Amino acid sequence: xxxxxxxxxxxxxxxxxxxxxxxxxxxxxxxxxxxxxxxxxxxxxxxxxxxxxxxxxxxxxxxxxxxxxxxxxxxxxxxxxxxxxxxxxxxxxxxxxxxxxxxxxxxxxxxxxxxxxxxxxxxxxxxxxxxxxxxxxxxxxxxxxxxxxxxxxxxxxxxxxxxxxxxxxxxxxxxxxxxxxxxxxxxxxxxxxxxxxxxxxxxxxxxxxxxxxxxxxxxxxxxxxxxxxxxxxxxxxxxxxxxxxxxxxxxxxxxxxxxxxxxxxxxxxxxxxxxxxxxxxxxxxxxxxxxxxxxxxxxxxxxxxxxxxxxxxxxxxxxxxxxxxxxxxxxxxxxxxxx
Length: 339
Fold this sequence. Notes:
CATH class of the largest domain: Alpha Beta
Radius of gyration: 23 Å
Distance between the termini: 30 Å
Number of strands: 14
Structural class: alpha+beta
Helix content: 25-40%
Number of domains: 3
Order of helices and strands: HHEEHEEEEEHHEHEEEHEEHE
């Protein structure tokens, strides 16, 4: 990221939209002249980030939907989400999204690659649930005749079509290509049902992520970990900075895990951080063992969350706390804890 670059002006886009853009798009859709607005809309979106894309379509509750999407690029996912957070309230005419929604009918439609037509109804998917995500292998009879890059594009676009960009990035794990039909393959509609069930199992009744406990060892010493599900940046795209908070504790059991007094103190520190951060960051996982707890917090880089954390841990009495901040829009720093 260019340190001298100006931050995106989301309000400038929405001021234009409310004053001119929405009405112009409505008129263009009605009289078939929308193509005359493409360059202006593109310029307005690219003023936020040149790597964002946009499209118009029918809304689910409103008449029209405006989507500004990172198109799978994690580096601009936060910009798209902040654009959405700054959006006006939806109306009967317009609603907004920062990712392409799923199709109403996953098995409808298709795409053309060169001279090859790919109909989504003919796609079959080998789908394997692995913990809290689904690994997939995508098959279509035309894939064998296409180059590798085109195969990948078909796989990802068909998955986005069926699941929407957000669910695809959140709940789909490994994506492979199957030149032959996989055993027990399912349709895109069936895949949507499986992913929906995985999401229901992994999210609490309040709509918030659940937590899972993990355990292992390092050099013979036990390690304990806990992580939220889903552990994916698509769940909170604006939290794009990884804060590793390395907390020592003196009150340890013989095998290096926190004794009751230390455990209470660690929980108190986590609560203190949550209160101080007030929605600008979130604890998503922690790893504990050998006298240390490593807290994984993801923060909004456009807030002073890192400085807030630095100040909040100064009162810890069981050793010196280290805080490391790293830009990480893909949440690579916690990928080893994803279940």
